[in-house]
Specification:
By secondary structure, the chain is an alpha/beta fold. It is about 40% helix and about 20% strand. The strands form four sheets. The protein has an eight-stranded mixed beta sheet with strand order 13-12-11-10-9-20-21-22, sandwiched between helices. Helix 1 crosses helix 4.
Length: about 500
């Protein structure tokens, strides 16, 4: 457990958009300038009152800032007179703080509000005794993104910066925490959102206040792993035997395992037979997910697009087409070799048909099999044909999968974490191919295999030679993100 949590105030602990907008618009109206939409104040805030005033005046029709001194003075006076005007605590924040306090975590607030206003707001919203220290902007504490405030609090707490979690909702907050050498968590529920937080190197993202508790614990909750090329190396069709005791050991430590693949559910379930009821499945590249033996969600592939891909596959002499339904795969085979591959090598549940009209199930995924390999040249051909209508991605040595925009393995990550009540930030995912990119990007710790394509490695900060080795280390650490675990997934330099 980290020793201290330091929170930004506006947009993290408290919803203050209506407060800022109401006061600023009253002043703009008095100055004869146009008023501004409340939502725009998401981007005006975060860097202190003076910067907010500048941004308001420019957008309200005063680009020369002729009214700056007057508005800056009046804005501060009104907030000092009533800093709680239209201010409320975000749902779940009070419960989070109480649980952190119960666990002995030191709590601090670091705000760009002037120090007296910060003290008044925190005391009025949360009372005495919940926060150990509150710090706002003053002559001795520079405005964020300078790290003065968080470092001052860490010193007061008697803890090292690396033992602290800094939580905020803006890019400025992430810059502040990183400059202080602290762990950083982006509050997605706040003003700015996911993209800005990631661009400014948030180490973790918290979708809900309750996620912060799991992040502070520093314990991994869920493991997602691709199969072909990741757990199944060198074209193998059977999992390594050591994976099954590892999955059981993960479960004993409170860590849930999820298999994520372009394969069908029936095939994956057979493959994990010794632990098949202990795990969840993301199948068909994220079009289908199964949890506890029940379909968690199912997405359908557009019929017209499926038909056009099928026709294109029939035009290429050696290319085979595969239609994935929720229950089985359907082949319209050109060769017996392809039927043998699906039946005896891949071991899918399948049926052979003579045309699409004979298939009784809705499509969840289409794929083509290229006997000569899923080369860059082959991929480019399919991307040119259908790249404007869907994603075409390599999936294993000879397969190219077609995935509707917005459907991918990353969708399964978020839905399964939500089902488990697990913070997405406290998940790990392993993958090696282009169809794993969204899996790696959506998990808290996306880990590319060391033999992965360079474009896959570039999408994540972590890398590993072996899934099994990382899992063994994680189990030995009781799931905690200790130094030994982090060393296992560091990129080779």
């Amino acid at each position: 457990m980290l020793k201290a949590c330091i929170f930004d105030l506006d947009g993290t602990l408290a919803y203050t958009l209506d407060s800022m907008a109401s006061v600023a618009n009253e002043i703009l109206k008095d100055l004869g300038l146009k008023t501004l939409p409340v939502d725009r104040f998401r981007y005006y805030s975060g860097e202190g009152a003076s910067m907010l005033v500048r941004r308001c005046l420019i957008d309200a029709g005063d680009p020369e800032l002729t009214h700056f001194e007057e508005m800056d003075r009046v804005y501060r006076e009104r907030f000092n007179a009533d800093p709680l005007y239209h201010v409320s605590i975000y749902p779940g924040i009070r419960e989070l703080l109480q649980e952190l306090k119960k666990r002995g975590v030191l709590l601090g607030v670091c705000s760009n509000k002037p120090h007296p206003a910060s003290m008044r707001v925190v005391q009025a919203l949360f009372g005495d005794g919940l926060f150990d220290e509150v710090i706002g902007q003053s002559d001795r504490i520079r405005r964020k993104p300078a790290p003065d405030g968080p470092l001052f609090l860490a010193e007061k707490f008697g803890v090292n910066p690396e033992e602290c979690l800094y939580i905020g909702d803006t890019g400025t907050d992430m810059q502040t925490g990183n400059a202080a050498g602290m762990h950083t968590a982006g509050a997605v529920w706040g003003f700015r959102g996911r993209e800005e937080l990631l661009e400014n190197h948030a180490e973790f993202l918290a979708d809900h206040p309750g996620d912060i508790l799991q992040i502070a614990e520093q314990k991994i909750r869920v493991i997602f792993s691709d199969l072909d090329g990741t757990l199944l190396r060198d074209g193998r069709q059977q999992l390594p035997e050591q994976i099954f005791p590892l999955i059981r050991a993960l479960k004993e430590k409170g860590i849930f395992f999820v298999a994520a693949s372009g394969r069908q559910y029936a095939n994956m379930r057979r493959m994990f037979a010794p632990v098949q009821d202990d795990i969840a499945y993301i199948c068909e590249n994220g079009a289908l997910a199964v949890f506890g033996g029940e379909i968690l969600y199912k997405e359908e592939f557009p019929e017209d697009l499926c038909r056009d891909i099928y026709k294109a596959a029939m035009e290429k002499p050696e290319t085979e087409f595969l239609y994935s339904g929720p229950a089985r795969h359907y082949l319209i085979p050109k060769t017996e070799e392809f039927v043998n591959l699906i039946s005896n090598v891949v071991r899918n549940d399948y049926a052979c048909v003579s045309g699409l009209e004979e298939i009784p199930e809705k499509c969840v995924k289409c794929a083509v099999y290229e006997p000569g390999g899923a080369s860059d040249e082959n991929l480019a051909y399919w991307q040119e044909r259908f790249g404007s209508r869907c994603v075409a991605a390599t999936s294993g040595n000879c397969w190219i999968d077609f995935i509707p925009f917005g459907i991918n393995k990353g969708l399964g990550v978020r839905r399964i974490c939500e089902k488990l009540g697990a913070a997405v930030s406290m998940s790990m995912a392993f993958g090696d191919e282009r169809n794993d990119v969204d899996l790696l990007k959506n998990a808290g710790f996306g880990i590319a295999m060391s033999h992965a394509r360079e474009e896959v490695k570039e999408c994540t900060a972590y890398e590993a030679d072996s899934v099994e080795k990382v899992l063994e280390t994680l189990i030995g650490a009781d799931g905690i993100l200790c130094r030994e675990v982090m060393e296992c997934i560091q990129k080779k330099r």
